[in-house]
Design a protein that fits this description.
Blueprint: E1 5-9, H1 13-17, E2 28-32, H2 35-44, E3 49-53, H3 62-75, E4 80-84, H4 90-97, E5 102-105, H5 110-120, H6 128-132, E6 137-139, E7 145-148, E8 153-156, H7 159-172, E9 178-181, H8 188-198, E10 206-210, H9 216-224, E11 225-226, E12 238-239, H10 241-244, E13 249-253, H11 260-272, E14 274-275, E15 284-285, E16 289-294, H12 299-303, H13 309-316, E17 319-321, H14 329-346, E18 353-354, H15 356-364, H16 370-383, E19 389-390, H17 397-401, H18 423-444, H19 449-456, H20 460-469
Parallel strand pairs: 1-2, 1-3, 3-4, 4-5, 9-16, 9-17, 10-13, 13-16, 18-19
Antiparallel strand pairs: 6-7, 7-8, 11-12, 14-15
Length: 473
């Protein structure tokens, strides 16, 4: 079995002298002392990965940035690691942000870099299974945790969330039902897709049912299907989502809205896979893997008699709670950078620089709408970006001024460093912010007032009156 070659560039003899010619983990290392030589070295040795030590660079980093771009193109999907000082030159910072280069800072040991490469550049597998299904979990030397799928990845630097992600990675690869609990906009649907992508069912369909968006009398038909004539509008036989998902994954979102009879049927499907379509006595069998999600904790619903205890205990065995964004402060900047990159490409807007005050404003706001609200705020900022520079001026006014939108969590408060405003200013700001929040919610829900009212936590009458007040009707 051949050894993967890692090409290393560093002007620090002490750093490279720690590299054995043949690594104990099964790697071979080749070294050079300049970035100019690194590309040729990687090409000649068909390197599986490269490490560029760019601490103490001179000339502002512009020349190195151009070489890194060529090196990234040369390596394709193979990993490139860049190590810089804590105070990284802006061109190198930008190159790392807009590409898949792994950026490490400060006094990084060569061992920690190799640890990261060990997960990114696996040795040739002794069995074909490992080669076909590489481990989706990556531990990075800067204490982050990554769960990677085919088209998406979930990364966190929040200690409490890292443990959850570790456990979820194990459960995702097994054929078991998973329960996700988290506030609206926290990323449950995204994480459900990721669970599907790292599971053995990744090449099968992924089907979503938003239970909260369906009338109560149609949920059962949507899930299990129905026979012609079983109710007034049943003009033909219809397969439900359990059959539509085939051997793939079925996400049932907002399961807290299910009625008692629907809960009984769901428990039966989880336990046996069996169900009957509405109006039929023929038993069908589902082969889909279930992921269920709820915006609300289920324990209080059990105590109130609204959720069956047997279903709750069946689901809670593999329950994962997705923290709200305000409790994931280490991840805010990471998510913001990713959204900026995505939106700037999608909207064809060039972003050269991001002011520190921009990130400060994001960190100070409590994000009651969670990751979804952050994404929409970043989209707005990119749309109005001027001269390639993102500043606080481009953020929504309620984020700049710190006026909190609707939330079910009374503990959501502003950072204490925010400036106070007098009551008249606050009233004006709240009016402007409320209008913006309603407009954004309407757009997200395709101007469906029922769904918009549910998302904002108000009645349809209240929503209509506010729309009329702000001239949105």
């Amino acid at each position: 079995m051949s050894r993967p070659v890692i090409a290393v560039m560093s002007q620090r003899s002490q750093w490279t002298s720690e590299l054995p010619a043949s690594g104990p983990d099964g790697y071979s290392f080749v070294t050079c002392d300049s970035l100019e030589k690194l590309g040729q070295l990687a090409k000649d040795n068909e390197a599986a990965g490269v490490i560029a030590d760019l601490r103490n660079v001179s000339g502002g980093g512009h020349q190195q940035e151009q070489m890194l771009e060529r090196l990234r193109d040369l390596m394709g999907e193979r990993p490139v690691v860049m190590v810089t000082d804590d105070d990284c030159p802006e061109p190198l910072e930008r190159r790392a942000m807009w590409s898949s280069i792994q950026h490490l800072r400060g006094d990084v040991s060569i061992d920690s870099v190799i640890d990261w490469l060990q997960s990114a550049v696996p040795l040739e597998a002794e069995t074909p299974v490992a080669a076909v299904n590489p481990a989706p979990q990556i531990r990075t030397p800067d204490s982050g945790m990554v769960m990677s799928g085919i088209t998406r990845r979930f990364e966190t630097f929040t200690p409490e969330l890292k443990r959850m992600l570790e456990d979820l990675t194990v459960a995702a690869e097994k054929d078991v039902t998973v329960l996700l609990i988290g506030e609206t906009g926290a990323g449950k649907t995204y994480l459900s897709n990721l669970i599907h992508e790292v599971s053995p069912r990744k090449n099968e369909p992924f089907v979503t049912v938003a239970c909260g968006a369906l009338p109560g009398d149609l949920i059962e038909s949507e899930l299990f299907g129905h026979m012609r004539g079983s109710f007034t509008s049943a003009h033909a036989d219809k397969d439900g989502k359990f059959l539509a998902a085939g051997k793939g994954t079925l996400l049932l979102d907002e399961i807290d809205v299910l009625g008692p009879e629907q809960q009984v049927k769901l428990l039966r499907v989880i336990e046996t896979g069996q169900f009957e379509p509405v109006g039929s006595n023929d038993t069908q069998t589902s082969q889909a893997r279930l992921v269920v999600a709820s915006n609300l904790p289920l324990e209080p619903l059990v105590q109130q008699g609204k959720f069956r205890p047997d279903l709750y205990y069946r689901l809670s065995m593999l329950k994962f709670e997705l923290m709200p964004l305000r409790k994931r402060r280490p991840d805010i900047k990471l998510l913001a950078k990713r959204f900026i990159q995505d939106k700037s490409k999608k909207l064809d807007v060039v972003v050269h620089r991001i002011e520190q005050e921009f990130f400060d404003a994001l960190m100070a706001y409590p994000w009651p709408g969670n990751v979804r609200e952050l994404e929409h705020a970043i989209q707005r900022a990119v749309i109005y970006c001027r001269d390639g520079v993102l500043s606080t001026d481009e953020l929504p006014k309620h984020v700049r001024t710190g006026v909190i939108g609707p939330t079910n969590d009374p503990t959501v408060v502003l950072d204490s460093t925010r400036q106070e405003v007098d009551s008249k200013q606050l009233g004006d700001q709240m009016a402007v912010t409320e209008k913006e929040l309603i407009e954004e919610a309407l757009m997200r829900n395709n101007y469906n007032r029922t769904k918009t009212a549910r998302e904002l936590g108000v009645s349809r009458v209240t929503l209509y009156n506010k729309m009329k007040r702000y001239g949105l009707s």
